[in-house]
Structures are given as C-alpha cells and as structure tokens.
Amino acid sequence: MTMLSAVLAAGDTVSTTLGVVQTVLEYLGTVAFAVSGAFAAGRKQMDLVGVVVLGSAVAVGGGTVRDLLLGELPVFWVTEPTFLLVGAATALAVVPLARTRTLDLLQRLRIIEVSDAAGMALFVVIGTNVAIDSGADGVSAAVVGVVAGVGGGVIRDVLANRLPEVLSNAQFYATAALVGAAAYLGLLQPDVPAEVAFWVPIVIILAIRLLALRLGWGMPTFTVPDGREPRNRS
Fold it and tell me: N or C: which end of the chain has fewer CB within 10 A?
C-alpha cells in the first residue's frame, strides 16, 4: 500500500467512525428528548395518546422546524421514520418505568440531563451544517442550528401549556447552543480536520450546559414589580 493509499484509507476510516458515532448520538438524543416529553405529559396527567404525541413531538421537533425553515421537504422523519418510531416507543416505555426506581436513579445521576445536553449539542451542529449546505449564510445557519437544538423543548412546553423553559429557566441553554454554532462556523476552515470541526463545538456546548447545571450559571432574569406596568396614556 502506498503512502497516499494509506492516508486515504485512514481518512475513510475516520469518516466512517464519525458517521457511526453521529448516528448513535442522534438516537440517544432522540431517546432523551422523548423521555423529556413523556415526563411533561405525565405531569399534565395525559393519556397514553398524549404521552406518545408529546414524546414524539419533542424527539423530532427541532429537526422538523429546521427542515421547514430551510424548505427541505418532506421533513427528515418522513423519509427516515425510525426516529419517529424510536421517539414513540421511548415515550411509551417511560410509563411502566415511571413506576419503578429506574427513572429515579437516572434523574439522581442526571443521566437524562446529560443525554439531553448531548443530543442538543449534536442537533445544533447538524442543524448548522444542514443550513450551510442549503445555502444559508453564517448568521442564518447559526440561528437554524440553535432552533434545531432547542426546538423540541419549546414544542414540548407549548403543548404542555407551559412557558418554554429555554426562555425562563435562567440557565445557559440557548446561549450554549449559540456559542457552539458560532464555534462550528469558525472551525469550518480548509486546514481544520472534519472531526475537529465536528467535536469541538459539541464539547463546548456540553461544557457550558453541564457547568450551568452544576454551578447554577445562567442569564440574568428580568422582573417588573407588581403595579409598575406601563399605562396606556392615549
């Protein structure tokens, strides 16, 4: 084998490995988001149909909004329904598991939050990349990436009749997504290896998000004291 052949083979191996890891993380993120949606359904005492609908909507919501913004039709889960099926099956599985200590253990270890953060980070990077491939400029691509990462959670909260957590929990969530999307755009240079451009933004988003959960970091909140709302003087 020549030196050139060895280099090309190594590149193919890296690309294949990266693709496998990306697919695994996509499904893990789908599962984590579906669990989040099922929990929200349980808190609102929805029936099994509501559990499936909410879990599935959260699982594929961000990617759906991404594709709609970019005019990519049909949306991804129409041609790849496995993601939708995984979301629905996961949401249903939460119902019997909720009666055991399994989910309590996962919550104590923050496994669900870590998986959610990892899924969000991955969807941000993928969403930004899809937007660039569709011809969007840097700013628009970053916004699409953030929407892809946080869109499922927004859909969950709207369907559960709650103020979207991404706007109200005073933690670095959308901010982490935006920083990661910007980092990804900055690393899209010819001399930067594809695996570096892919993984570094994910690590950045995870680090910001997990530190925010651990240390309580977040954006300052805005509160208008009662009785001080602006009056209509017309």
Answer: C
Residue 1 is predicted with a pLDDT of 42
Nearest to 214 by CA among 119, 113, 146: 113
Q: What is the pTM of this model?
A: 0.80
Average pLDDT of the residues in 167-177: 80
| Number of residues assigned to the chain | 234
3-state secondary structure the chain: CCHHHHHHHHHHHHHHHHHHHHHHHHHHHHHHHHHHHHHHHHHCCCCHHHHHHHHHHHHHHHHHHHHHHHCCCCCHHHHCCHHHHHHHHHHHHHHHHCCCCHHHHHHHCCHHHHHHHHHHHHHHHHHHHHHHHCCCCHHHHHHHHHHHHHHHHHHHHHHCCCCCHHHHCCCCCHHHHHHHHHHHHHHCCCCCCHHHHHHHHHHHHHHHHHHHHHHCCCCCCCCCCCCCCCCCCC
- Delimit the domains of the chain by residue range: 20-215
Question: What's the CA gap between 207 and 187, in Å, rounded?
Answer: 18
- Percent of the chain scoring above 90 in pLDDT: 39
